[in-house]
């Protein structure tokens, strides 16, 4: 009755080149010699308007979409003509059968011609086109089928940009051109059934089926059609006894209806087997169209009996609450168009604890749903209304019309799949051009969905802002950028459809969770992101969030494969599915069934296990996160127990606690647990006393009935409580200035410590250790001045955690941090501590991460002999990575000070790490050697590059020698040498310099270039080679003394990471490597085999290449170059440094400063001799955006000065992505180079954190502005109009907006908040983004 045959195979192809090709069929057709394999895209890459290629990375010969071997020239063809002929067999036209062409996917816009007759124009690249051709076909005749494929129509928007009016979805839709899914000729009887709709209700035990009668002509009065329904298990033979059957008469059309009739069944069915993820039972429903007793048509559909609905914040599947743990990924074409790929994905998801897949950004081929039905995978079915690309004119009538048609088609195609539980209307349309007009049509599109399918909830992925609360069926958030869990009112379910930062992977985002190890390799950074996401998932589950989808298991948690190009054997081209010729290397993360035997289904990377542990449906998750305890109190721990199954379970948990291997506690808990229920389990035990750090291991076994479902092992550290009172030997007198509480803590550790007032400091002897207690108030600056003077006289200062007090010109930034980390833990202060000790000082976890234990930190100093003992960061999108230090040491020519910002005293009695750190600080501050500065000389051309770098950038104190003078060497203990001048002096000078080192001198040879090997060989008495090998990334050997204090942060030259709003540059650290035969230690070597340079310099940021670039860099890893070498010569020391001397690079300045300070050099930094001025108290940072000429300035102004203005944590707003501006260190101003004639908007969220300030109190003051432009200032929506610029700051958040205009060539503006008395406001925190309020 129904016949079809596939038109896949080789089609002739004529590319159409040109900027705006149309879809008319050319009169003259000249086909290429090579044919196109339908289905496929003839394009595998293209050049974007920016000029950057998509789909290939030429330097690696990487082209993951080039699977058919088409000519590269075809990539330039935005349009083309595809042609083939076909003949219909007699069986397809016998009687009065109707003939159709069906195209399952044509990209983008297309025109279909049959025998040069235009029969269809199609503008939906993802959903099937079915067009009747009965009138123009006949059996045996040769028919010519032409399909002209081109680009979607474009319109020009006010900005001058061209935007499409079609639905491209994500990258595949922009890349692909052609017939990318199967093509069929189909025939049906003249009277046939169509548009079958199946609805099942578990609550009513009911099956509802509707279908429409399709006729070649009108329904006649004497037509007596009936329809017989039969339902069988899907795996039963068609002739077997049905589980359910019924017959119904056709309902004739009423006035105003279409000419065709329809049929409906409403059947009670109490005994149906339910479909669910554990038991995805499928039925096959057959409708037989009967004309009298004769069957004239059969239509079949597979379905599952299930029902999905919401009850408050919960999804209910068949009456059972279900939490969604999801995955999603971009569709990318041919290599993902196999059933094996889909099964690999879904089965991997099940291993990971994922029960739901969002078919992201566009409708996927229908077998993604067929297989989900079979595998029991829940599906969020999404349209191609994909705003992330911002490629559309969303307010254009054609775009809106295309959206409505597309939604209708998707529903008609997919509504009978039991796996589909949610309709996703769109993705991230929140900032597209034409947003406000588009969102007016969203309610109507939602109504369309409900009319076609009232059984499933509707979600707008990432677009809560576009829909009123009362119309929201499911709240959707992406990446915490547009709201928080705390704002969820639990009226409807909350789903995070995307979460996690893997697309933005960089060390700056990851170090907050794994420390400075994140800088070593991309996979270490991946671990950090996985740790961050693990914590979020645990928090979200604890808060009852209904759905969480980390982005993503299918790609970012995998390793790319295969490791080589895989040629594929010939295949039958006229069968369904693409027939690639090759699988390019590293083009897959999931096996698609085309790889040779031996390849696994997938290869996990380090993120997978961490994330799958957090997604596990049956699990125990610790509810407290601190892991260190004192031994003088019982230890209480609680755990969240999850049963994300579909069944009630008898749960038994057996806890065992062992201390140093000995069992100290055993306890069992038993309870019943409902599906999707979270329960809490708590235990307590008393540890045995210890005399040194000990290990406690807790093991918990979770049973369902008698089956072990989960095993948890945790290690805790136990410390002796006597650490809080055991005296510390500091070897010198100590004095304390500060409050009572802190003094009692310090006095317990230093019984001889004397308490002094600020006025007494001037009388202290320099050998005294001065300890400043925490959070001191120094409104008049006298205490700071006294401590500066004491350190200048040779004294030692230990400054404990402060809110605004710091020494000299050292700037303190008021913002919280929840982790600190070191490149090396060899520093005496850190004795007994490691990476895992400087996080989780508190039990609790917040949505944004652990609770902070640092309230302010020092901006990383550039000049001076500083040693940042610890670093801390706020993530790149928060503020730019590890730009702060919470613990640093400074050595002047005579004195030293150590400044700590970790909250040691607040946590001293509770957190062993705080106690250990305070003890370490006291001991080190007391007994650390105060090495005298050495006299330094430099063989460097006066006024040359090296001289200017050393003297001006480093402020090194030294004497200059323009020419080599042997007799002057004895005047110096440290000598810096330009290799060019040494080469000019010749071999005798090299020999003299060698003798100088052997007699105890210290020599540093500055960066050498090829051609200078001979003199270095003479100096070292061995062969030296220099080769060009630029590096942005180094690692230090901290076992070498001169490497002490070199931060991995400074050894990483990539500052402008992907999507960072910071105005910084990526800078190489060295241009040439150096090698010396045998004997020299490598102090700094290059880090090779990472993808960082490709990501951040090459700007290869496309998601399809992220994982591949990691493998490609592993594959092409070159030997690591050497950049700083060191060796002992007799009693002296010799270093060769290839580090670039870049005055504009803070990192180069810090690296050389630390390297030379470790050799005894001194610096004229004048840090303690000067007080902080406006440059240190000015507003620290703002976000900036110009107002282009095509934008309505008044509307943009209204947006920014709104008292409720907010900015998400990507800096993304209605008018574009804002750029971060950081104050210039020299004068505290913000500068914008080449600002043009446009007006600029600057924004900052200013938090007033003055202690004791009530929630409704305000502080009055003045905003001092120094600018070379006109400006308007708005505070909390109010314009500051008086000349004194008096302002009022309320407790908490204040919104500061500055509009600048008429700037000079470089815009400059500085803003300083002053009190009414004219002093600096000291309790301010500056933030760039905000998530505490519902964003606009």
From TrEMBL:
Question: What processes does the entry annotate via GO biological process terms?
Answer: carbohydrate metabolic process
Q: Where is this region: Disordered?
A: 236-258
Q: Which GO terms describe its molecular function?
A: hydrolase activity, hydrolyzing O-glycosyl compounds
UniProt signal peptide: none
Keywords from the UniProt entry:
Glycosidase, Hydrolase
Say if the entry is tagged with keyword RNA-binding.
no
Question: InterPro entries, from UniProt?
Answer: Beta-gal/glucu_dom_sf (IPR036156), Galactose-bd-like_sf (IPR008979), GH (IPR017853), GH2_Domain-Containing (IPR051913), Glyco_hydro_2_AS (IPR023232), Glyco_hydro_2_cat (IPR006103), Glyco_hydro_2_N (IPR006104), Ig-like_fold (IPR013783)
**Where is each Glycosyl hydrolases family 2 sugar binding domain found?**
7-147
Keyword Transcription found: no
- Residue ranges of the Glycoside hydrolase family 2 catalytic domain? 312-488
- What domain of life does the native source organism fall in? Bacteria
The Glycoside hydrolase family 2 immunoglobulin-like beta-sandwich domain is annotated at 193-306
Q: Which family does it belong to?
A: Belongs to the glycosyl hydrolase 2 family.
**Protein name as catalogued:** Glycoside hydrolase family 2
Question: According to the entry, what is the taxonomic lineage of the organism?
Answer: Bacteria, Bacillati, Bacillota, Bacilli, Bacillales
